[in-house]
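Before surveying the methods themselves, let us examine one representative protein, pairing a chain with its fold in token form.
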Amino acid sequence: MKIQNYTLKIGKKTLLTDVNVSFAQGKITHILEKNGTGKSQFAKDLLLRTRPDETLIISSYARIPNDLRLTDLQTFLAQKFSQEKIDRLSTLLNLSNIDPKLAIKKLSDGQKRKLEILTFFLSDKSIIILDELTNALDQTTIREIYQFLNAFIRENPDKIILNITHEMQDLTNLTGDLYLLNQQNLTPFSSVDSIIESYVRG
């Protein structure tokens, strides 16, 4: 995935100016950015610049209807995707032990987020954009999501995952390329320590 001569404005504010960057397959690319600087708009704009049949965006605001039971969701997914793939991703997300008779509204926030991840990742898009995916989750769920993402990208080297985040723990738990969105540019970094130092310094 290449971005060439890319400029992004939000109202009167310019977020990026004339950026040229390539995002590699088989890797998680982190784009570190401070809160309130336009991360979600950046994610949405990237989605608009790619083919809709090859790209998806998952944010902390994604929701599955609470009135469904888990078994209803499983039935719906089984009509669209192979059971083998559903079972594999469910295992990676540690979802296999949830009672299927439960209503989704009875699940924890972490379980709901993992169901959302399952539903989106089954769609088999080439480019996956994560917008603050672990926001407001407990540490156990966050660790499980990290384990899932690391395993998923190993098993799917043709995929591109962009993780737009302000969570520095993402960088230490998800191996990948590092960029800092700052001063209207995407600056690459070779180490977690160096990007965190620059992020904190501002």
Q: What stands out?
A: Residues 2-201 form a domain with the Rossmann fold fold (CATH 3.40.50.300). The helical segments are 39-48, 70-80, 83-92, 109-121, 139-155, 168-173, 192-201. The longest helix spans residues 139-155. The chain is about 40% helix and 25% strand.
